[in-house]
Structures are given as structure tokens and as C-alpha cells.
Amino acid sequence: MNFKLEKNFTSELIEGETYILPYGQNIAMHKKGVRLNPTGEFLWSLMEKTEDYFEILQSFYRHYDAADGNERQMLKKDFDEFLNILKAHGIIRDLDEEQSTFSEENTLFSIGGIGISCFIPKEYIHENLLDFQCEENERHSISVYLKSFQNEQLLDGEVLVRTDELIIIKKDNLLVFDYKTNQIVKELSFDILTKKVDIRILSKKDMDTAKEEIFFAIRNAFLYYAAKHHRFAVHSASLVYQDKVWLFSGRSGVGKSTHTNLWKEMYKVSDFNGDLNLVGVEEGRAYVYGLPWCGTSGIYSTGKKPLGGIVFLSQGEKDELLPMSKSEKPLYLMQRMISPAWTKEQLERNLDASRHLVDAGIGVWKLSCTKNKSAAEYMKKELDQWNS
Prior knowledge:
Shape: elongated
CATH topology of the largest domain: Phosphoenolpyruvate Carboxykinase, domain 3
Largest sheet: 9 strands, mixed
Structural class: alpha+beta
Radius of gyration: 27 Å
CATH class of the largest domain: Alpha Beta
Number of domains: 3
CATH architecture of the largest domain: Alpha-Beta Complex
Strand content: 25-35%
Helix content: 25-40%
Mean pLDDT: 91
Distance between the termini: 69 Å
């Protein structure tokens, strides 16, 4: 068994007997200690020096002068049983089990020029994502693996985000997403240098829940990586009109779906995405890229199209455009992004991206409107004038 010692356990001598005891967060997680016999004490002393299974085993053989095969077989059995006891108490992680739990079928996806190489059985891959399957990997890509969750990683790094549902921690080159309310996916770790993503799941029984939670865990890693390569996600519904994509954004409940449904009913335009749009600038021109993630709308598209503009919606007693200052345009756009803004650097990157989008010539409006057909008529007239 290849193993790794978990943090926040220590050996203590109490009245002549040795115990492995939890401390810190392990106490809060109700981890229990283990009393060691002399053989266990010796093995633990070796494990504190190295986590190499075969090196420890050879030292174990030498300690007991085990020369013949039968003696060595018995000692190996004792060592394996000791490791299983430590594993059952959460004192070590079984790396072999993590690596071999799932077959590693490599399926390639391309979203906005960003690659996702999924070493995940297809039965765990969400149907939306399968529409973005490709034959060749992109230049910029992440690799995603599915593994068994055994014990929560205890990192002493910087807490970037803490909510009731999620904790995000950064230590050195590792990002860890700790999902507090998920049923299946308990943790995602992202090695920033190797671009390797490990999604650790607790159970394989509820396939529908597993697929949904894996799908949204991949979104966390994708949005982080995409922003580093100039692709930013804007919370908005979108329509295709005059071969351009137009975003309609606003706070929850403001009427994005109502407004875009009016356009579809009156002008027979098509949807692009019902909840989330990936945007970027190529050679001075703004584009929207298809995303598989679309909230609960079920509306998404593949491919890319030019970005015409974005309309920030608010409810009003009449349909009218409200004035926007030069600084408000990139500010409003940045505030509707859901690309990570966990650090000052990320916030400034999102703001710079918003400036570049505005400078690329997209239209930006603030529309106070009713829920009537007149709102779509009013905004269509404005877009036609601007686009002529």
C-alpha cells in the first residue's frame, strides 16, 4: 500500500505506553487515537521518517532478522494490517486506492479554446459537456481525474473564500475546494503548476447526483483556469440577433428570462445561453464562446460568435435607457462576472478584461423596463440604431 500520513496526528508516551493522538482540526472532526504495541511503535517510528512502503518493509525485515520467505511473509502481513488500522482511523491515506478506484478513460473537450482532458469514465460525465467533445487537445488545457475521498485534507494555507457551502484554500501551488454540503463530491484539488485537477468523491451510488456535482466541480476549475487565459464568465442570458450575441444581465429576479422570452416570441431570435456566457477578445474583437453550464435554464450553445453588447436590466414603471458614465460601463460588466475575484490580482484582472471588452467596441446599456412587449420593442430599436 502506498500511503501518506495525514496532518495533525502525533505520537505521545503516556505512563509507559505510546499512543497516536489527534489534535487541532482532527479533534473537531472527532478523529480517534490508537494505542501502539512495541511492533506498532517501531513501524510508526519508521513511517515518521519515510512514506516509502518498501523501504519501511526492508527495515522491518532487518529489525527482526527475517531471512527466509515465511518470516518475511508474516512480517509483511503484520505491516499491512497495521496500515489498515491506521487507515480506518484516518491517520493515513491509501494512495493506491485513490489511483485505482476509477478507470482512466481520456475524453477531450474544448470550451472557448480551453481544453479539458477528462480521465473519467463517461458514465460520470454530464450530457451538456459531451456536446463539447473534440478529437485533439487544446494548447491550454487542464487534466481532470476522479478519485475516492478518504479524509479531508488539512491545509494551513490561505483561506480565499469561506461560506456555508464552500471553503477555498491556497497553499503554495495547490488550490483546494472543500465542498461542505455536497452529497458525493467532497473535495477538488487543483495543482496550478501541473494543471492537474483531482475530484474526490465519497460514493458512487447516486449516479445522477454524482454527475451534477462533478459537472459543477469541473466548472470551478475551468473558470479559474480560463480567466488566466483571457476568458471570463458573465452571469447573463443571451440571444443571437443579426448574427451577434447580445447579453442581458441583472440581479436575480430582475426579469432576464422574461425579457429574452419576449424577444423570442416577437422576433423569433434564438437562444445562446440561459444563464452564463464566456467572453473574450481576439485581435481587438469581442466574442462569446459556448458554455455547457447554463444554470437551471437548460439553454446552451457550442461554438463562438461576435459579441454585440450587453444590456444591464432593472425594473421600472416605463421603458427607458438610463445614463452610464464612462467608468460605469466596465464597472458594471466586471460586477456581473463570476470569474474568480478571490484576490486583489484577480479583481484587477477582471476589471482589465472588462475595459478591453468595452474598448473592443461592444455596446453597453442600462435599461429600466417593464415586463411588457414594449420593453423588447424599445431595446430592439436601440440595438438596430446602434448596429446600423
